[in-house]
Design goal:
The complex is a heterodimer. Chain A is an alpha/beta fold. Chain A has one domain: Anaerobic Ribonucleotide-triphosphate Reductase Large Chain (Alpha-Beta Barrel). In chain A, about 40% of the residues lie in helices and about 15% in strands. Chain A is built from 15 helices and 13 strands. In chain A, the strands form two sheets. In chain A, strands 1, 2, 3, 4, 5, 6, 7, 8, 9, 10 and 13 form an eleven-stranded mixed sheet that branches. A two-stranded antiparallel ribbon of chain A has the order 11-12. In chain A, helix 14 links the parallel strand 9 and strand 10. The longest helix of chain A is centred in the middle third of the chain and has 30 residues. By secondary structure, chain B is α+β, with helices and mostly antiparallel strands. Chain B has a single domain, classed as 2-Layer Sandwich (Alpha-Beta Plaits), CATH 3.30.70.260. In chain B, about 35% of the residues lie in helices and about 25% in strands. Chain B contains four helices and four strands. A four-stranded antiparallel sheet of chain B has the order 2-3-1-4, sandwiched between helices. In chain B, helix 2 packs antiparallel against helix 3. Chain B is globular. In chain B, about 45% of the residues are buried. The chains are: A alpha/beta, B alpha+beta. At the A-B interface, helix 1, helix 3 and helix 9 of A face helix 1, helix 3, strand 4 and helix 4 of B.
Chain lengths: ~450, ~120
């Protein structure tokens, strides 16, 4: 019989430290759903998603019951819709978002990702139509998530797309103004987007992916924090080792669940994403891990170093525990979804500038950040450009999920509810980036991208 | 153990007694071996084992191993059980154990064995 302490350790992780599997995401290719008739294309999309994902929720619930580990979300990601919809002659793709929403409702999943376009080098006709449809699509649907890749290390930054995304975010905020501009919480602007990300809002099923795959995203900030509570005052060598060992255990659980889900659904396993994804619940915070390392409040000097150590140690521990690691893998720092981050912003120790620095070493970017509703579109674009530059130059994924909450100003609070949490409105620079953003064109790929 | 117990209790302070029953079930691919682990945690009293094993008898679940400690009045028991010949499904067994736990003022968890093996064995 397995060791008594090991059993109790696992039970404590699940019961007290909120260890969970954050998501089982089924990636479905829609490449065979193109049609010159938009209505026919949408019919194919609905039929395919509901057929492939028919048992996803049931299998997720069965696994949760049998292993006793919560599986918070069951989701679907699909091929970027811009690629599918542009075969038809429609000049607005909102109907495609609505059919995705309907399919999501039918199969009972939490979110569906892939109302997306990859425009890092330029627009095709369909890409532009999709981007222009995003505000209406996000306002008219509940479960559809959208993402746009505007930059990558190999091709530089598409500043036309960066400029347009500022406007699109503003318009989305306006159309969902009655609900804290929540549409923007379902929209991510990426640099170096990954094709197998199981986490929303940025999940889509890349064109290099198989017909259908299962990707699993793990979580467990509370477990890491609890492990660090046991080594107060020890050196960073010990801190890194402790995080690695803990991440290994968490990821092994994720790998097991991924294998089970894959086998039961008869769908190949894609990847396990080794992410520390926080929730607004107390005890499930990445910020609190950083504070456990010795920082008085997340955002004070030393935070970037602490996050760098955490991100690296999670990867090192997790990568040995999984057969295929992918997605975003690392520590997420979504402000509204992390109780410690919310607290740090309220205390004045965490600001947008420090968050930007943290995104240089975390797994994603400026995530779930709420700014004043009257923030200029060009300022939003400039924030995106800064993040894209960090991603492109450092050869990493960065993203921006920013919410200019209509009618709110600095000091107010935006309540999104559920896992999206609540966000204090953070100040942006009062100086204009308008002339910079209005130039358009492309920022060339960095010299170190030419590796052939 | 006391430490673990107190930590566990503090997370559910509304209950004066807490019991956790963990069941591990092992199901080797395609095959028939189905093992389970049961852990009970709570205030000691008469009838805990009877209450739980009654559920096993009813569902035709065989107990393979038992590990039990008593610290400061807190009763902790972990049982390894075989579900191969179980006459119900996993969800139903879990429900029955939870009902038994409620009657005994115990909280019950049920998990397949693989998760523990995955996390603690290479």
């Amino acid at each position: 019989m397995i060791n008594f302490q090991n059993i109790m350790e696992t039970i404590d992780m699940i019961e007290k430290e909120k260890l969970d599997i954050r998501t089982i995401t089924m990636g479905i290719s829609l490449l065979d759903c193109c049609d010159s008739d938009g209505a026919k294309s949408r019919m194919k999309i609905y039929e395919k998603i509901t057929r492939y994902a028919k048992n996803l929720v049931k299998v997720g619930c069965d696994i949760e019951t049998e292993y006793g580990i919560p599986i918070i979300n069951k989701r679907v990601s699909v091929t970027p819709i811009a690629l599918i919809a542009q075969a038809c002659g429609d000049n607005n793709y909102s109907a495609f978002a609505k059919i995705l929403d309907k399919a999501a409702d039918t199969v009972g999943i939490n979110f569906i990702g892939g109302f997306s376009a990859l425009v890092q080098k330029g627009y095709t006709k369909g890409d532009k139509i999709l981007l222009d449809s995003i505000p209406e699509a996000l306002a008219a649907t509940k479960k559809v998530c959208s993402s746009v890749n505007v930059a990558c290390t190999k091709s530089g930054i598409n500043m036309n797309a960066v400029r347009d995304m500022g406007e699109i975010i503003k318009k989305t905020a306006w159309l969902t103004r009655d609900n804290e501009s929540i549409g923007c919480a379902k929209l991510v602007v990426f640099a170096n987007a990954v094709e197998d990300n199981p986490f929303m809002a940025g999940a889509f099923h890349g064109i290099g992916e198989a017909e259908c795959v299962i990707n699993v995203g793990i979580s467990g900030p509370g477990v890491i924090k609890a492990a660090l509570e046991g080594i107060k005052g020890e050196s960073f060598d010990t801190v890194a080792e402790t995080i690695k060992k803990t991440a290994f255990k968490i990821t092994r659980a994720g790998q097991l669940i991924a294998n089970e889900a894959s086998a039961r659904l008869s769908v190949p396993l894609g990847i396990v994403d080794l992410s520390l994804a926080p929730t607004p619940a107390v005890g499930d915070s990445v910020a609190r891990i950083l504070e456990e390392m010795g920082l008085e409040s997340c955002g004070c000097h030393g935070t970037t170093a602490a996050l760098a150590l955490l991100n690296d140690a999670v990867k090192k521990g997790g990568v040995m525990a999984s057969c295929h690691v992918g997605g975003l893998s690392g520590a997420f720092i979504p402000v509204s979804e992390d109780e410690g981050m919310i607290n740090a912003v309220n205390m004045g120790s965490l600001n947008l500038e420090k968050l930007e620095a943290m995104t240089c070493v975390c797994s994603v970017g400026l995530d779930m950040v709420a700014v004043p509703g009257d923030t200029e579109a060009s300022t939003l674009s400039a924030i995106i450009a800064d993040e894209a530059a960090i991603g492109v130059i450092n050869n990493k994924t960065t993203g921006v999920r920013i919410i200019p909450v209509y009618g709110k100003k600095v000091g107010d609070l935006a309540e999104f509810g559920g896992l999206l949490g609540k966000a204090p409105i953070m100040p942006v620079s009062k100086y204009s980036s308008e002339a910079f953003i209005s130039r358009g064109g492309r920022i060339p790929a960095p010299i170190h991208s030419f590796k052939n | 153990m006391l430490n673990l117990a107190s930590v566990f209790f503090s997370s559910k302070a509304e209950l004066c007694i807490l019991c956790a029953i963990t069941i591990f079930i092992k199901n080797y691919e395609g095959a028939k071996e189905m093992k389970a682990f049961v852990t009970v945690l709570g205030e000691d009293k008469v009838g805990i084992i009877y209450g739980i094993t009654s559920v096993f008898k009813e569902t035709n679940v065989n107990v393979l191993d038992v590990n039990q400690t008593l610290l400061g009045g807190f009763f902790t028991m972990i049982m390894l059980v075989d579900l191969e010949k179980m006459n119900t499904d996993f969800g139903e067994l879990k429900h029955k154990l939870e009902v038994a736990g409620e009657q005994l003022d115990l909280s019950i968890l049920i998990q397949r064995e693989d998760i523990f093996n995955s996390m603690h064995k290479i």
